[in-house]
Write a structure and sequence with these properties.
Layout lengths: L1 H26 L11 H34 E4 L3 E7 L2 E7 L2 E4 L5 E7 L3 E11 L5 E13 L4 H8 L3 H19 L3 H7 L1 H19 L3 E8 L6 H99 L2 H14 L20 H18 L1
Antiparallel strand pairs: 1-4, 2-3, 2-5, 6-7, 7-8
Helix pairs in contact: 1-2, 3-4, 4-6
């Protein structure tokens, strides 16, 4: 576009200058050498000149319009918010990521990042309460800006708000911290708390001064201290390390001895428990044998008792049966049967008396025996 604009200017001046020179030559001394131009040719030449001038003007207008359009179109990257200035005054309009238009030449814009960004504050001097000057090489402050708070923060602290709100505050807070603490505390004792304390202090101040600017994290490097003091600290740390190693070695030895003692106690307890278990097992075995013997003895006693009871009952029942069965008549019958079974024969009137007692019933028995003997003899 710029080349087209320059080309049109060149055509305008070249065509116009050439025509004027030719007319001057024609009016001056060239009348004798060249023939005069006719009226139609002069009109045609004037029209050509006028058209060239008109084309140059149109080209200039197009070039200016294109430049204005090019200057009015701008792009806001993702994660940024655009703010606009007109004549140095901040406009209330903000824009989101994308392509936008603005009034060219009198309006300009700045892109403000709203995503996470890390501001590095380098070489921060700090004097301790003892008068020793130390330097923090690098302090990183991770922060982000809420998009809705961009206008207020830019209006109050400009687009470079981090210089006023972060860099200066970090310098101030670190110097405040160092001024009330000794070198020992800053370098060793409280160094692990500097990050968190600085973050909390910055966030408290920003909540009051610039709501919408959020501090996510603060990272502080180890400060640089004078070389002589640093060597002393290194020697002290080396001695502490040796002492710590010695203490840890002693603890390890004590721990090993304690472990060995516990192992011996555990082994003795294990043996005692094993012996106790074996003794209990033997006692249980003996008790089991005793119980089995008692059960067997009880069973044998019950068996023998049952047998004796059975024999006693049998004898008792047999005695009762015999008592009922062995009547005098039955005994006489058995005697007669025995006599009958005998192969010897006795004769005489006194023979029955040899088997019976003399008494009141002896006569009846003798009579019965006589009758029975006669019957037996008849049968024979």
């Amino acid at each position: 576009m710029l080349l087209a604009y320059m080309f049109c200017i060149y055509l305008f001046f070249y065509r116009g200058g050439g025509t004027s020179c030719n007319n001057t030559d024609l009016e001056s001394g060239t009348k004798d050498t060249e023939p005069k131009m006719t009226e139609p040719s002069r009109a045609s030449s004037s029209f050509t000149t006028w058209m060239a001038q008109l084309g140059a003007i149109a080209s200039i207008i197009c070039a200016i319009g294109g430049a204005a359009l090019f200057a009015s179109v701008h792009k806001i990257e993702e994660g940024h918010t655009g703010v606009y200035y007109r004549g140095g005054a901040l406009l209330t309009t903000t824009s989101n990521p994308g392509f936008h238009l603005m009034m060219p030449f009198i309006t300009n814009f700045k892109s403000v990042q709203t995503t996470l960004q890390t501001d590095e504050v380098k070489n921060v001097p700090c004097g301790t309460s003892g008068g020793v000057m130390i330097y923090f090489d690098r302090i990183e402050v991770v922060n982000y800006l809420v998009p809705s708070a961009v206008y207020d923060i830019v209006r109050n602290f400009t687009a470079d708000y981090d210089k006023a709100l972060i860099f200066n505050k970090v310098h101030h807070e670190l110097n405040q911290f160092c001024s009330v603490h000794s070198l020992q505390e800053v370098y060793i004792g409280l160094f692990d708390q500097i990050d968190e304390n600085l973050k909390l202090t910055l966030q408290e101040d920003l909540t009051c001064m610039a709501p919408g600017l959020i501090i996510q994290a603060v990272r502080v490097t180890k400060p640089n201290i004078p070389e002589s003091i640093r060597r002393n600290y290194e020697m002290m740390e080396a001695e502490k390390t040796k002492l710590l190693i010695s203490a840890q070695t002693q603890k390890v030895v004590e721990k090993e001895a304690e472990t060995e003692r516990k192992r011996a106690v555990i082994e003795a307890e294990k043996l005692a428990q094993v012996a106790e278990i074996k003794f209990s097992q033997k006692v249980m075995e003996k008790e089991t044998e005793k119980r089995i013997s008692e059960i067997e003895d009880g069973a044998f006693l019950a068996k023998m008792k049952a047998r004796a009871d059975a024999e006693f009952y049998t004898a008792e029942r047999a005695a009762e049966a015999n008592k009922l069965k062995l009547t005098p008549e039955y005994l006489q019958l058995m005697k007669f049967q025995a006599i009958a079974a005998n192969s010897k024969i006795y004769f005489g009137s006194k023979i029955p008396q040899m088997f019976v007692d003399s008494g009141p019933s002896s006569t009846k028995a003798s009579d019965a025996m006589d009758d029975l003997t006669e019957q037996i003899l008849d049968l024979d």
